[in-house]
Specification:
Elements (H helix, E strand, L loop, with lengths): L1 H16 L3 H9 L3 H4 L1 H10 L8 E6 L1 H5 L3 H11 L2 E8 L3 H7 L9 H8 L4 E7 L3 H9 L12 H5 L8 E3 L3 H11 L13 H4 L3
The structure holds inosine-5'-diphosphate and magnesium ion (MG).
The site of inosine-5'-diphosphate has 9 residues, from loops.
Length: 203
């Protein structure tokens, strides 16, 4: 039994070293809890909550933000927070793409004017990666209505009306995945290693 336990923990240790969290989780969940036993299991639980530094979200600078030359300042906020840019492009959005992006808002009275606004000029759309990036981005972007957005947020600093609120940020993990697939081809997203990775998060 002790030999079996040692084998199990050696395999798990190797998986942690290779930083393959998914494999490790399935490896751990595949064994009966009783086999993992006391203190060691407690240690494993804390290691298995390694931060998901691969979380991704979609951020877009809307046409008013591009016209007002705010693209650089908005990118800078995400860079200085420590997030990693993995996709970036400028495009004139089609109504078809927008209707999919804003499918939940089709019945809203402001929907026609939202389409006009979003197609009034180019947008700059990005994918940012990092720990808790979806929720943190929403905080950084601020309230949908800039009149209620806090100073220090993008909308709170650069806009004052809900019809011209400068920037889009995905509102959930599922929403982010859906929007990233809608706006980007897989080949347009880059996996690259940051030289400062260990300075932004304990991996
Ligand atoms: P969010 O952008 O903060 O996620 P949503 O409720 O998803 O907010 O709305 C999408 C976008 O629709 C907003 O960012 C804004 O551009 C626009 N919008 C929302 N509510 C109104 C409104 O009451 N009047 C005009 N435009 C609105
Ligand atoms: Mg939204």
């Amino acid at each position: 039994m002790i030999v079996l336990q040692r084998c199990i923990f050696m395999r798990i240790g190797q998986q942690f070293c290779s930083r393959n969290q998914e494999t490790t989780k399935s490896l751990v969940s595949g064994f009966p809890t009783a086999l993992l036993g006391g203190h060691r299991a407690a240690g494993l639980r804390s290691r298995s909550t390694l931060p998901n530094v691969r979380e991704r979200t979609l951020i877009a600078v809307k046409p008013d933000g591009v016209q007002r030359r705010l693209v650089g300042q908005i990118i800078q906020r995400f860079e200085q927070r420590g997030f990693k840019l993995v996709g970036l492009k400028m495009l004139q959005v089609s109504e078809d793409l927008l209707s999919q992006h804003y499918c939940e808002l089709r019945t809203k009275p402001f929907y026609p004017s939202l389409l006009l606004y979003m197609t009034s000029g180019p947008v700059v759309v990005m994918v940012w990666e990092g720990y808790n990036v979806v929720q943190t981005s929403r905080t950084m972007v601020g309230h949908t209505n800039p009149a209620e957005a806090q100073a220090g947020t993008v909308r709170g600093d650069f806009s004052f009306h809900v019809s011209r609120n400068v920037v889009h940020a995905s509102d959930s993990l599922e929403g982010a995945q859906r929007e990233i697939q809608l706006w980007f081809q897989g080949s347009e997203l880059l996996n690259w290693d940051c030289c400062d990775q260990t300075s932004t998060c304990e991996l």
